[in-house]
Amino acid sequence: SPQEAPEPHALIERLCVQADLPKPRIAVADTTMPNAFALGRSKKHATVCATTGLMNTLSPAELEGVMAHELSHIANRDVMVMTLAGFFASVASMIVQAGFWFGGESDDEDGALGWLAIMAIAAVVYCISFLLLRALSRYREFAADRGAALLTGRPSALSSALMKITDGIAHTPKGDLRAQGAVSAFYICPASATSAIGNLFSTHPPMEKRIERLSHYEAQLQGTSR
Fold first, then answer.
1. Secondary structure tally for the chain: helices H, strands E
2. What is the pLDDT of residues 40-72, one digit of tens each?
3. CA 118: distance to chain centroid?
């Protein structure tokens, strides 16, 4: 409530006025890992959550950048977009699972071959959908970074926040990070490190790419970009 967390409420109210968004519900997760995420099927039914570690780590300007990033996800309806985009992957996954459980019960050789063909096609569709979903998720993170930069006019504050969050995650016990695995894809920074090869399967862009783009936005806003 505003009485329990007056500063986050005041900050988000101000950003919502600037972004012409209805004020979302505000939640606080009691964990030392600095991070934040947004959920909700629409602009009118959304929640923004920040961890206590985030609020204790960031400066007011950095926290503003993070909250603007999460509000950009809400403005872009990213949860709904990702849910709809995942439909084909979900259907393909169910077909493959059904094939494993029931496909081998047919005594008809043609029927068994048909099931194998369906399973093979479904597996290919699932793999392609999985990679496309990850690419779409990374694009949505870039878009939310850009939205935050435009909303606050201070891309450098978000850059600084991202670096602090990454450093905080690196110093968080692994057991605590594993406990956050279920919502890691929704966080502004994933609760795990990603290798160069793993970037293809990551839900978030490489941090250095995000910082690079934010630096470019900063230069554009200051009129120094070429």
1. 9, 3
2. 888 999 999 999 999 999 999 999 999 999 999
3. 32
Please identify every residue annotated as catalytic: 70
Q: What pLDDT does 88 receive?
A: 72
Structure tokens at 193: 């490190």
Contacts of 52 (CB under 8 A, 6+ apart): 28, 29, 30, 31, 32
Question: Which residues have CB under 8 Å from 74's CB, separation 6+?
Answer: 21, 24, 38, 40, 43, 46, 48
Neighbours of 1 (CB within 10 A): 7
Choose among 33, 23, 25: nearest CA to 55.
33
pLDDT digits (tens, 9 = 90+) for 71-107: 999 999 988 888 887 777 777 777 777 766 665 555 5
Sign of CA dihedral 56, 187, 204, 215: negative
For residue 7, the one-letter residue type is E
Exposure string of 111-141, with b = 16+ CB inside 10 Å and e = fewer, is: eeeebeeebeebeebbeebeeebbebbbebb
For residues 77 and 87, the answer to whether their CB atoms sit within 8 Å is: no
- pTM for the full predicted model: 0.84
